[in-house]
Amino acid sequence: MRMQWTLIAALVFALLITLFALANMDPVPVQYWFGQSADFPLILVILISALLGGLSIGSIGMVRQYRLQRQLRRLERQLAEQHGSDADGLQDLHASESEETLRSDPESEVNEPVDEHSQPSPIPPSEQKL
């Protein structure tokens, strides 16, 4: 859902930039290095500037995401080494922690082992009388 709102906000922002650019179509001089200049429509200057800004922000975000993923993998390896197992052992660790939580939770309805041959009760546990 958050991604949808981000996309909608980006589209609204792009629409506002486009409307602003269409209202400013006069040619403007753009100065390059070494004293060179050229006249371009203001719409092109605005849209290209917005595009370059978006690309730079996007590339910064991608670099940050890459670093965070690399850090996550490194920390998972360290955790696996501390527990004396590989990355699959982390799943076993999470599963055993979940089982311990279920066993120690007094409000949990799953306190006893399930018999493979037992039939489920047609009455929900909350309505059964003790």
UniProtKB/TrEMBL annotation:
Residues 121-130 have a biased composition (Pro residues). The keyword Repeat does not apply. It holds the Pfam family LapA_dom. Residues 24-82 form the Lipopolysaccharide assembly protein A domain. Residues 94-106 have a biased composition (Basic and acidic residues). Residues 80-130 are annotated as: Disordered. GO terms for cellular component: plasma membrane. Keywords: Cell membrane, Membrane, Transmembrane, Transmembrane helix. InterPro entries: LapA_dom. The chain crosses the membrane at residues 41-63. This is Lipopolysaccharide assembly protein A domain-containing protein.
